[in-house]
Amino acid sequence: MESKFTQSGTAQITIDGKSYDLPILKGTSGAEVIDIRTLNKQTGKFTFDPGFTSTASTESQITFINGAEGDLRYRGYPIEQLAEKSTFLETSYLLMHGELPNTSELKQFTDTITSHTMLHDQVESFFYGFRRDAHPMAMMVGTVGALSAFYHDDLDIEEEAQRDLASHRLIAKMPTIAARAYKYSIGQPAVHPQNDLSYSENFLNMCFSVPAEKYAVNPIIADAMDKIFILHADHEQNASTSTVRLAGSSGANPYACIASGIACLWGPSHGGANEACLKMLNEIGTVDRIPEFIARAKDRNDPFRLMGFGHRVYKNYDPRARVMEKTCHAVLKELNIKNPVLDVAMALEDIALNDPYFVEKKLYPNVDFYSGIVLSALGFPTSMFTVLFALARTVGWISQWNEMLEDPNQRIGRPRQLFTGAAARDYVPASKR
Ligand code: CMC
Predict the structure, then answer these.
(1) N or C: which end of the chain has fewer CB atoms below 10 A?
(2) CB 309 near ligand 1, within 6 Å
(3) Residues marked as catalytic
(4) Which residue, among 230, 237, 232, has the nearest Cα to 67 in the 3D structure?
């Protein structure tokens, strides 16, 4: 990756009366950053920033978010346009290569991905090692990590062609692994990939067809699935992406790095939020109970938070939430589902958006607010929601991993700490404690 930042000024920091100059760097969009790479060398001090709320951990040219405006762009293209006009595989090519493919590039990319959809037959035995009621995310972390055992010895991550091969394998095999985890968790036989279907059709077929019956994928549902994958494909330096970069910064195997991203994504503050949001909407149950839950969310002594609301970066409506809301209505209409939870969601959104607490704190619906309703309408149990997120985010993770390895400024990630533990002391034998 060729660096594209320029120096736009100089910041000065004064410590004990002595001033130090630090360059201010300007990218192509977004906030400027103070380059503190020489700070420790110059001053002997580190910075303190738990949760990285003020820290840019890397230069990147993939995804841009303007949280104040509610803008999300992949390689410059607004998410709304991609969700409406592109497909997941075309968007994947864009994320990986930086430009939209022409017709023959897209065909070649699609053929390449399609030719890697099958799992090595021995991967099947990993599934049989899991308890029959294992959470599908547990199976995803384990099985994706296990791919490193199949593709390790011959993998040289310094070589672009080999990185590409690993990237294609991951994008291609994630739907097969995700669907296999689902089938295993419900005790149904594995359905193998069918390469005459599109990426999303194939995934739905592997999840919902059974050997005993004919199954045809509904094109409107496949389109909704594809949109959901596009919306989740990348989100710049979020917790799971930073985890993948940190794991990869040591030169680790890419399958193991992606497994670390899946582990991070699992938590309820990140990918697990849509599961938590749907549970919350079901718990609220009826519109008249909304004020009770709003009051709880505002109560500092109550740990309850309105799930699907608020975001570290968006201080405006999450643009993905708008597309998700539209998709949600389209899916429920197509499937002729009347879901009272949707009524609760719409009323809750309306009330919260007009409540001074949420307005002042700039808490808006995020992508997870409507996605749980759509995914359950598509037929997925809540335990699969984060799995679908992981499937879609794999292309983002792998694009960021590739970018990191091509970055001349890349070094092993090694944050520092502000130590407040015990001072040095001598060991005391157990008999004298
Ligand atoms: N309900 C009620 N109050 C909230 C909420 C919420 N959902 N979110 C934030 N706040 C309050 C919070 O209590 C704090 O108040 P105060 O300043 O009085 O202490 C203030 O808003 C700022 O919150 P924060 O926790 O400092 O903000 P953060 O940037 O660290 O947290 C968040 C972001 C997403 C973890 C948080 O908003 C949250 O827990 N939301 C619910 C979970 C959720 O929907 N997560 C999905 C995120 S989108 C998916 C993804 O991209 O991974």
Answers:
(1) C
(2) yes
(3) 311, 368
(4) 237
The pair phi, psi for residue 19, each rounded to 5°, is -100, 145
In angstroms, the Cα distances linking 116 to 110, 121, 135, 169 are 10, 13, 25, 6
Q: Is the Cβ atom of 147 under 6 angstroms away from ligand 1?
A: no
Give yes or no for residue 154 having a pLDDT over 80. Answer: no
Long-range contacts of 204-210 (CB under 8 A, 24+ apart): 204/378, 206/175, 206/176, 206/179, 206/180, 207/178, 207/179, 207/182, 207/183, 207/379, 207/380, 208/379
| Average pLDDT score over residue span 325-334 | 89
Q: How far is CA 263 from CA 235, 386, 403, in A?
A: 17, 10, 21
Residue with the smallest CA separation from ligand 1 atom 40 is 310
Residue 267, φ and ψ in degrees, nearest 5: -65, 150
Reported as a single tens digit per residue, the pLDDT across 342-392 is 889 889 988 988 999 999 999 998 888 888 888 988 999 988 999 999 999
pTM of the full predicted structure?
A: 0.91
Question: Within a 10 A sphere around the Cβ of 232, how many other Cβ atoms?
Answer: 25
Residue 155 confidence (pLDDT): 80
Nearest CA to ligand 1 atom 21: 361
Which tokens is 387 given? 């799995």
Residues 165 and 398: their CA atoms lie apart, in Å, by 11
Residue in 305, 312, 397 to alter for ligand 1 test, most ligand atoms within 8 A of Cβ? 305
Cβ–ligand 1 contact at 193 (below 6 Å): no
| pLDDT at residue 73 greater than cutoff 90 | yes
Closest-CA residue to 258 (of 119, 90, 146):
146
Q: Is the pLDDT of residue 47 over 80?
A: yes
Q: What is the mean pLDDT of residues 335-343?
A: 85
361 lines ligand 1 (CB under 6 A): yes
d(CA 352, CA 375): 23
Q: Which structure tokens are listed for 360? A: 């002042």
Q: Does the pLDDT at position 153 exceed 70?
A: no
C-alpha to C-alpha distance for 387 and 144, rounded to whole angstroms: 12
- Closest Cα to atom 15, ligand 1: which residue? 361
CA of 109: how far to CAs of 88, 96, 146, in Å?
12, 11, 25
Our mutation pick for probing the ligand 1 site, out of 52, 242, 269, counting the most ligand atoms within 8 A of Cβ, is 269
